[in-house]
Q: What sequence folds into this?
């Protein structure tokens, strides 16, 4: 049977590198999960929401913990052993659904980061992606596969302007199977380009490429959002802050609940920095103020405050800068950012 | 024989596409006969990710995620599959909790693997990436490099340099060069299908220091 288990403030529920077969649900109190972000080496602290599971992934596959769970206040949890958890979830389909969603969302985001490192980071809207796969098979003389892909394309996107092109390609693939000779066709990238520069084509006809929601969006818009986010990140890393700003604005303009909240947070931090680099101090401080009203994540708040301090520095208002830094120093938990703020305060005298 | 699954059965000839990456996904499948190849086109090459056999389930990811297909599946032989609709998915989960749990396990394992891979890929030096991949393969054997004090050699069976190169995103030649260097130094040993780590704590320290230095550089 799962049991209620108490932890007193300051105690560690589990350490990283330790093996444990317990899965917890937070019932009351505050638990902070801290882990090292794999790609930056940065320590991230996340405060759990009431009702949230923790320790799940590692326990269920008997992997060492990769995070530290700390009871910040007195905490009440429900503790399951793996077998108990298994029988508990098996009677609760809604919970299973939720868990599978959460995990698959995490995995997808990780996959995109991995692909970014591997240089496979081009993500197409689904219809263009599908069209390109057909093109790959056509280029490689795999006519049967090309035809099957284009049939699916026409089936799924009958009203887009590439549907005609898909029909044409099915026809030339069919002929090529008989004659061994493939008639010429324009690569889809060129088709897209010529349409954009064409100018006189109405948006309705160019649903393949532009703003119509119907055909370019995946059901949840997740791919599109992630694409924008990573484009912005790429632009930021390449110091192209204007493009980054544009992509992020577009990211936030079509925000939905399905997008991983951590990515939204990351995007927000990026956005603050971008506005700062673009010297839009007014807009930036306004955005940060809005954010501070709603966020309860100390690490993010501190980061945002740092940017605010930078703005005051640029505006040559050392008193305000000091006040902000003071705020960071005072904020729990004490971490590297607190230290940095303190050092900076000292240099300001 | 009257099999309930027969009603939803579909057949494919070798080379037929069952579903295509980027396509909408509202069905999932259980293989009844034959083999199914899972592929993805990357760098303008079609890469095989896996080959599945009965009674494997596939196509479930797009349903869980409510997102387009993330890979293409092609019939490798003559294939028979049982086809299920999206709404059957959660019914099947409910009536078959073992299977639901195995999905949670698979996803959890993949998340750990992807996180570990990110750690490797984020290293700046390619040589360190190769060494860290070797550490990961050691971890997969249930050994924790951080606490392994022994200098007893560890054998990694069925490990090809291609696999290492692929995992850490390097081309084969470059990866080969680093492995040879470490073999020459006596830190690794190599046989036809094995890589032997001669001194694990040694390699662990090397990678750990590289990572430390790199992240110290990243600080402001």
A:
């Amino acid at each position: 049977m799962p049991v209620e288990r108490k932890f007193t403030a300051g105690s560690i529920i589990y350490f990283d590198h330790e093996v444990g077969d317990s899965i917890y649900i937070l019932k009351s109190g505050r638990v902070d999960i801290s882990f090292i972000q794999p790609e930056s080496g940065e320590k991230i602290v996340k405060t759990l929401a009431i009702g949230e599971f923790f320790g799940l992934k590692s326990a269920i596959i008997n992997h060492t913990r990769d995070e530290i769970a700390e009871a910040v206040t007195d905490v009440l949890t429900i503790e399951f052993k793996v077998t108990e958890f298994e029988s508990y979830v098996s009677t609760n389909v809604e919970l299973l659904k939720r868990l599978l969603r959460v995990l698959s969302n995490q995995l997808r985001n990780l996959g995109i980061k991995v692909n970014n490192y591997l240089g496979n980071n081009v993500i197409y809207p689904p219809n263009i992606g599908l069209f390109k796969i057909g093109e790959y098979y056509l280029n490689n003389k795999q006519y049967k596969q090309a035809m099957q892909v284009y049939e699916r394309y026409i089936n799924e996107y009958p009203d887009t302007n590439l549907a005609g092109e898909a029909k044409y390609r099915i026809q030339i693939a069919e002929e090529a199977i008989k004659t061994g000779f493939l008639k010429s066709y324009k690569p889809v990238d060129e088709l897209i380009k010529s349409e954009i520069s064409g100018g006189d084509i109405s948006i309705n006809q160019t649903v393949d490429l532009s703003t119509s929601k119907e055909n370019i969006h995946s059901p949840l818009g997740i791919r599109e959002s992630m694409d924008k986010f990573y484009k912005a990140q790429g632009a930021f890393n390449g110091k192209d802050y204007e493009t980054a700003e544009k992509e992020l604005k577009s990211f936030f303009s079509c925000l939905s609940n399905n997008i991983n909240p951590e990515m939204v947070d990351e995007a927000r931090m990026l956005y603050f920095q971008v506005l700062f680099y673009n010297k839009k101090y007014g807009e930036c401080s306004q955005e940060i103020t809005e954010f501070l009203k709603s966020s309860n994540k100390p690490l993010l708040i501190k980061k945002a405050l740092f940017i605010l301090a930078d703005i005051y520095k640029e505006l040559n208002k050392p008193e305000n800068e000091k006040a902000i830094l003071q705020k960071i120093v005072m904020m729990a938990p004490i971490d590297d950012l607190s230290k940095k703020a303190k050092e900076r305060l000292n240099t300001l005298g | 024989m009257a099999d309930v699954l027969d009603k939803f059965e579909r057949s494919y000839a070798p080379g037929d596409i069952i579903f295509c990456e980027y396509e909408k996904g509202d069905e999932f499948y259980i293989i009844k006969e034959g083999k199914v190849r899972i592929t993805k086109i990357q760098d303008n090459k079609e890469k095989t990710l896996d080959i599945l056999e009965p009674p494997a389930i596939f196509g479930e990811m797009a349903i869980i995620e409510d997102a387009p297909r993330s890979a293409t599946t092609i019939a490798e032989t003559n294939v028979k599959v049982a086809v299920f609709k999206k709404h059957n998915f959660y019914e099947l989960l409910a009536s078959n909790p073992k299977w639901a749990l195995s999905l949670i396990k698979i996803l959890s394992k993949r998340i750990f693997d992807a996180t570990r891979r990110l750690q490797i890929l984020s290293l700046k030096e390619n040589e360190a990436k190769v060494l860290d991949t070797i550490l990961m393969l050691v971890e997969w054997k249930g050994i924790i490099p951080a606490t392994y004090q022994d200098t007893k050699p560890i054998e990694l069976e069925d490990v090809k340099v291609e696999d290492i190169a692929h995992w850490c995103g390097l081309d084969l030649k470059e990866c080969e060069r680093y492995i040879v260097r470490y073999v020459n130094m006596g830190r690794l040993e190599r046989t036809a299908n094995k890589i032997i780590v001669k001194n694990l704590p040694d390699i662990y320290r090397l990678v750990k220091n590289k990572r430390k230095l790199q992240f110290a550089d990243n600080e402001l």
Summary: Chain A is about 60% helix and 10% strand. The longest strand of chain A covers residues 22-28. The CA atoms of residues 168 and 253 of chain A lie 37 Å apart. Chain A touches chain B through 61 residues (CB under 8 Å).
